[in-house]
Design goal:
Layout lengths: L14 E4 L3 H12 L4 E5 L12 E2 L1 H10 L2 H7 L1 E3 L1 E6 L3 E7 L12 E3 L2 H13 L4 E5 L1 E8 L4 E7 L4 E6 L1 E4 L6 H6 L3 E5 L4 E6 L13 E5 L5 E5 L4 E6 L6 H4 L2 H12 L10 E4 L2 E5 L3 E2 L2 E3 L5 E2 L7 H20 L7 H29 L3 H16 L1 H11 L2 H8 L3
Parallel strand pairs: 1-2, 1-12, 2-8, 5-15, 12-21
Antiparallel strand pairs: 3-7, 4-7, 5-6, 9-10, 10-11, 13-19, 14-17, 14-18, 15-16, 16-17, 19-22, 20-21
Helix pairs in contact: 1-4, 1-8, 3-4, 8-9, 9-12, 10-11
Bound molecules: flavin-adenine dinucleotide.
The site of flavin-adenine dinucleotide (FAD) has 34 residues, from helix 1, strand 2, strand 9 and helix 8.
């Protein structure tokens, strides 16, 4: 077994980042841009090409612009100013046009783009940055700390173990975070009973639903659906049926029959990917333990309805890197890191959880009266320019971010 040569000696001043998803990569690049040495540890040998997040909200686009990686999202994505709540049978319930926010953000739209495009651009940028060490195939399994720094124990691709030192650790190692578990930080919340089934199709959905927007949340008590128009295909997400196992949902017959029943046409060939996901709502009790920060899915996970998980991971990353930079340069006391935890947990609990729970309930509400009432409320919001503006500021993650950043 060979040593990586990156272990303890001579690197005590760096920040170690565990996890090379969007949160860890943005953290690492934001630190590198401040001239802070970084060691990024990623468990996989190659970056993931998972089809997970697709929605990029305005504040995220602003952060990515500042980091010089926005073009990768714009070039591979679809700019989508208009999105809808719909009813599967009655059609459009409420439509929101983010162009109304053009005084609030230079990007008054969502961009629909596969998250791996961002990851690839961030890896490229990190490889070109001074002071950055990337270690792929390196799984963090243990983290200890003292008054001066952290030591992260890593299992390497060849099975060997090595210790890596740094002044701080950012654990961005995903929902099953080994670091969070090892620190024993509770991750309370719940898991939805109903899974989601995701298909990709190059069939043009607007042929079947002519007034559909590029993002449409379609409610139905029996089988709700989300439509997302990406650069060159539509992603279609259905609520899974309770009597269907995951493998069955992936078969050609089941997938095409489901699409045909939904669209009223058999034309939608599902040449592209299929996935089944379980969804959760959980937030860590704290996002700081001494010199270790939890960030992204390691700290909070939520229903994807509203497209907020990756976005809030990126917002965590920028916030964490800003505060770590101040502490690293000795411009601030280490307790500044508590503010990171307060601000970002506030967003996770009061904003992202609230909105994604409400959105998910809107989609699958079974009580006819409650459905009618929530649809009526949404129609009223969409019809009133002031209420619609406030609603879009929140659903575009602008209000929540501003409120949290103002917290002491
Ligand atoms: C179907 C679906 C749709 C979604 N849609 C959206 C959306 O539209 N918008 C949105 O904002 N969010 C969305 N999300 C959520 C989004 O995908 C996640 O919130 C996002 O990936 C979190 O990024 P992360 O970097 O925190 O974690 P991850 O992307 O999970 O990255 C963690 C990384 O850490 C690595 N790792 C794991 N353990 C270790 C370890 N011990 N040591 C070192 N490395 C480790 C992993 O290999 C991985 O590369 C969606 C999720 C799903 C499932």
């Amino acid at each position: 077994m060979l040593s990586t040569g990156l272990a303890m000696n001579g690197f005590a001043d760096r920040v170690v980042v565990a996890g090379g998803g969007p949160t860890g990569l943005v953290t690492a690049l934001s630190l590198a841009k401040q001239g802070i040495p970084v060691l990024l540890l990623e468990a996989q040998k190659l970056p993931h090409d998972h089809r997970r997040a697709t929605t990029f909200h305005p504040p995220t686009l602003e952060y990515l612009d500042a980091l010089g990686v926005l073009d990768a999202v714009l070039d591979n994505g679809r700019i989508t100013p208009v999105w809808q709540f719909r009813d599967r049978h009655a059609g459009c319930v409420a439509e929101f046009d983010l162009a109304a926010l053009n005084d609030e953000t230079p990007h008054p739209y969502r961009v629909q783009c596969e998250q791996y495009n961002l990851n690839h651009a961030l890896y490229r940028s990190l490889r070109d940055s001074d002071g950055v060490e990337l270690l792929m195939g390196a799984r963090a399994v243990d983290a200890t700390q003292d008054a001066d720094g952290v030591t992260v124990t890593v299992v390497l691709a060849d099975g060997g173990r090595e210790d890596f030192g740094g002044r701080f650790l950012v654990a961005a190692d995903g929902a099953r975070s080994a670091v969070r578990r090892q620190l024993d930080v509770p991750f309370d919340g719940f898991t939805y009973e109903q899974k989601v089934v995701q298909y990709g199709t190059q069939f043009d959905i607007s042929e079947a639903i002519p007034d559909v927007a590029g993002v449409a949340y379609i409610s139905d008590p029996d089988e709700w659906c989300v439509l997302l128009h990406l650069d060159d295909y539509w992603r279609v997400t259905f609520s899974a049926r309770s009597d269907e196992d995951d493998d069955a949902a992936m078969t050609d017959d089941v997938a095409e029959a489901r699409m045909a029943a939904f669209l009223g046409t058999r034309g939608a060939k599902l040449a592209l990917h299929r996935n089944v996901w379980r969804i959760h709502q959980r937030v860590a009790d704290t996002m700081r333990v001494g010199r270790i920060l939890l960030a992204g899915d390691a700290a909070h996970i939520n229903s994807p309805i509203g497209g907020m998980g990756m976005n809030s991971g990126v917002h965590d990353a920028v916030n964490a890197a800003d505060k770590l930079g101040k502490v690293w340069r000795r411009e601030g006391e280490i307790d500044l890191l508590d503010r990171y935890s307060r601000q970002r947990r506030h967003v996770a609990l009061a904003d992202v959880r609230e909105q994604t729970v409400r959105n998910t309930r809107f989609l699958n509400e079974k009580d006819r009266k409650v459905r009618a009432e929530s649809q009526k409320k949404l129609r009223e919001v969409a019809a009133d320019p002031v209420k619609a503006h406030d609603y879009m500021m929140r659903s575009a993650m602008i209000s929540g971010l501003r409120e949290a950043n103002a917290l002491a």
